[in-house]
Amino acid sequence: MSLPKFNDFLESIVAFVDILGFDKRIQSIDTKEEFNFSELIHRVDPDIVTGWNVIDFDLKVIRDRYQANRIPFIIGRSKDTCYYREGSSWGGSRVTIFGRQVVDAMHLVRNTQAQYDDYRLETVAQAILGRGKLLAADDEADIVSKIETAYAEDRDLFAAYCLEDARLVIDILAKEDLIRLSLRRCILTGLSLENAWGSVAAFEFLYLSELYKKHIVASPVGKKSELRVNVPGGYVFPPIVGIHDQIFVFDFKSLYPSIIRTFNIDPLALTSAETLSDPEVIVALNGARFDKKRGILPGMLDIFFERRAAAKNEGNHLASYTYKIVMNSFYGVLGTGSCRFASGQLAGAITHTGHYLVKWCRDLFHEKGWTVLYGDTDSLFVDLHASDQLSAEQALEKGTEICQLVNHELAKHLEAEFGVHSRLELEFEKLYKKLLLPPSRGSESRGRAKGYAGMLLTLLFNDSPAAKIEQFILNLVDQVRSGQKDDELVYRKALRKPVEAYTKTTPPHVKAARLLPNPSGVIHYVMTIRGPQPVGYQTDFVDYDHYINKQIKPIVETIAPFCDINIHKAFAGDQLSF
């Protein structure tokens, strides 16, 4: 095999150990004696087989080498041949090793809420552990050259590099507690460790288990036609453009799960309601009818809410997080055709109700003389028109008081209008001392959703003089043009499919990817005078005007109306204008 593949082969050998017994088990093997890969696996006898991208690369390569040498691929705890099944989408491939669980560390990290520039081992390790690979380079060709040199000239360095790659994986899993998190999810959903993060499978296991208790059998497939019903996304109303002082942010606690519990939104309750009269049903905002008898899904969520609250009180953050991610996945499951219980009526009942609730809260705030500046799905940004600067304690007291008022009024309204008991809870999230809601591009009055800046624009929010802001912009432009900011000009975007599959359109990262020998994953590229080019394969000068006009200029134009700066002067003195 090629050197990079051989390198990953060696990395995987060391990574195939269970988390707790790593050092002891490896140290018990005399590294001077000869052994083959199968013997090593059987002697270490891991419960968990892990590594970085271990399913789609390491184990696939190892399987291919076994087949090429006509050796049975047997590394499990039985005499059955292990096998690799390639998936049709990312994360869909599977490797079965009998008696062991295959857990891809990269997949686990991608299932967390943390965001990274890309999901290469080096990137994630640096972010989580503060250290990375022993051999590093700016581009793929250079790292291959370094590995080849180490293999040929310094075997100790080569071995240390391979071992450290394996240790990085183990340390990431340990630092983020991802194995315990996955095991807790297994206990909750009934799935195996290697399948623990499948949302549809988890939902179906839980729901089918409850159906079984009622002696009901579910159909093998869902009614796909129902999913064609138009299901809206989260509701967003236009922001009120400007710089605002002392803005309270409120949001609904677990909005969609709470809507399900309040309106008894449930697959079985939906079916049961077909034969019931009006007094026996709850009618959701999209017209869907649900049996008033407590449904399976709302009942499950009731238990999850109780257990999550208990976990929080006990300081068990791992358990609390597990319940949260499982609960929040239920809405998505009800809207996907891969789930037998999915239905456009179910998903629509949830989102339409979400729209109704944020609009109702907005109207209530307006009745109280307060202004809702912006709203998005489950959040409301509210100006209470307070004349005095509030301390943190005063803000918390005021925010809590308002939440109690809204929750009380909302419960009364839902009981009177829909005959339901409210499980919805508005929470006070934060207070922005200053908040910028910028206009959309090309419009002076219409706000741009998700464009709020909070406390990020320090100069603007500290009421700095226009001249100081102009000088800051001018210095930044000079730094960009002189190459001082080159390291910050790299774009990063992932390929969602093979480059040859991009036929209708060719985005910049795809153009850059086509200049690489083996493009995959996240493409790092810069804009040059001849278009996008990948980092490490750049042949032309950087197009600094692109970055100034496409990155810096829009931000300056956004804040200019609020600080009275001269854009022409800020960018080029008296010599250049846009």
Describe this structure in words.
The chain is α+β, with helices and mostly antiparallel strands and 578 residues long. It has three domains: 187 residues, Nucleotidyltransferase, domain 5 (2-Layer Sandwich), CATH 3.30.420; 202 residues, Palm domain of DNA polymerase, CATH 3.90.1600.10; 113 residues, Topoisomerase I, Chain A, domain 4, CATH 1.10.132.60. The protein is built from 21 helices and 14 strands. Strand 2 and strand 3 form a beta hairpin. The N terminus and C terminus are likely disordered.
CATH class call of the largest domain: Alpha Beta
Oligomer: single chain
The number of domains is 3
Helix content range:
40-55%
Q: What CATH architecture of the largest domain would you give?
A: Alpha-Beta Complex
Please count the beta strands (DSSP E, at least 2 residues each). 14
What CATH calls the topology of the largest domain is Palm domain of DNA polymerase
- Give the termini separation: 55 Å
Please tell me how large the radius of gyration is.
28 Å
Largest sheet: 5 strands, antiparallel
Individual helix count:
21
Proportion of residues in β-strands: 5-15%
CATH superfamily of the largest domain: B family DNA polymerase, palm domain
Low-confidence stretches: 1-29, 443-450, 574-578
Class inferred from helices and paired strands: alpha+beta
Strand order of the largest sheet: 5-9-10-6-11
What is the typical, i.e. mean, pLDDT?
84
> What coarse outline follows from CA principal-axis ratios?
flat
